[in-house]
Amino acid sequence: MDQSKRTRQKMINGKKMWVAAIAMATLSGCANMDAQQKNTAIGAAMGGVAGAVLTGGSSIGTVGGAVVGGVIGNQVRR
Fold this sequence. Notes:
Blueprint: H1 3-28, H2 35-54, H3 59-75
Helix pairs in contact: 2-3
């Protein structure tokens, strides 16, 4: 493996570590949420991912998806 491939792999591994750390910190913050707050957070996360996928990673699509997902999640009753 040449130097550029090793450098690229280190960067990818570093990004994965940061994503995992952020996910753990975010999920630990959900411990004291009620059901409606959890549904809002889950809806926003899923909407953000869906918006990013549907718009090819556009920032506006990601934020728009998160907003719509959060509103839908907030309205879900269990």
